[in-house]
Amino acid sequence: MRKKIVAGNWKMNLDYTSGMSLISEVLNMVNDEVRGDQEVIVCPPAVLVYSVAQLAKGNPKVSVGAQNCHEAESGAFTGEISASQIKSVGAQYVILGHSERRQYFGETNELLAKKTDAVLKNGLKPIFCIGETLEERNQNIHFQLIKDQLAEGVFHLSAEEFAKVVLAYEPVWAIGTGVTASPEQAQEVHEFIRKEVAAKYGEEVAEDTTILYGGSCNPKNAADLFAQKDIDGGLIGGASLKSRDFTDIITKFNK
Ligand code: PEP
């Protein structure tokens, strides 16, 4: 059975003190609300990954992720962080291909395929983000774009490797805008993604693949989104910075 996940992407927010307060609050609040088939992932800025992972270590329901990594193992890449370094400080996940990385840092599917390999090679799991801009949706090319993002970013993996990947559908027009995809719009794309996975790796792998929705997800709209048959949770940006909102979203699986 596939895992239900709520992952928080703190982006470039919070300093050490406020980050420690937030993770402490989240750890105090989540315990009773997370079922056995559910997982909570917190993805702080890189400088906080170690400290957050230290605090989360004793909690089997909460994992920690980074927001990006370099594709190389090590070397002269000033300012960059490798997957093995992320692994060494106690994280389990890395977000890859977030639209902000694609848009502001020019990350391509080809580069992301290499980053995916680095993440898996180091025993971490990628949360691989895909999704279209409003312009691409209006041009009705979003299904082809998502197909290409999958084919070029992750479909080079073996079935065994792919089983470790969490996918996140994040329509760019919904990220940080307050405009959420309707449950029907999101479900339509999630179903398409699952069919693409089935065509590549077979029905069984597709059924076991966790596909998160991301884009202005909050405690008010999460229940309707999570009730869709192909939506297995959320990648949460803004609402993950408030412990009550973030932990409220986790409870929406149960409704
Ligand atoms: C995100 O950054 O992945 C995201 C979904 O942001 P927000 O929830 O703020 O739209």
How are the strands of the largest sheet arranged? 1-2-3-4-5-6-7-8
CATH homologous superfamily title = Aldolase class I
Q: What pattern of helices and strands is seen along the backbone?
A: EHEHEHEHHEHHHEHHEHEH
Q: Compute the number of structural domains.
A: 1
DSSP strand content:
15-25%
SS-based class: alpha/beta
Radius of gyration: 17 Å
Number of helices: 12
Report the helical percentage.
40-55%
- At CATH's second level, what is the architecture? Alpha-Beta Barrel
- Total DSSP E strands: 8
Q: Residue-averaged pLDDT, rounded?
A: 96
| Main sheet attributes: strand count, strand direction, barrel closure | 8 strands, parallel, barrel
- For the terminal residues, how far apart are their CA atoms? 19 Å
Structure, described:
With about 260 residues, this protein is α/β, with parallel strands linked by helices. The protein has one domain: Alpha-Beta Barrel (TIM Barrel), CATH 3.20.20. About 45% of the residues lie in helices and about 15% in strands. The chain contains 12 helices and 8 strands. Helix 1 links the parallel strand 1 and strand 2. The two termini are about 20 Å apart. Bound molecules: phosphoenolpyruvate. Phosphoenolpyruvate (PEP) binds next to strand 8.
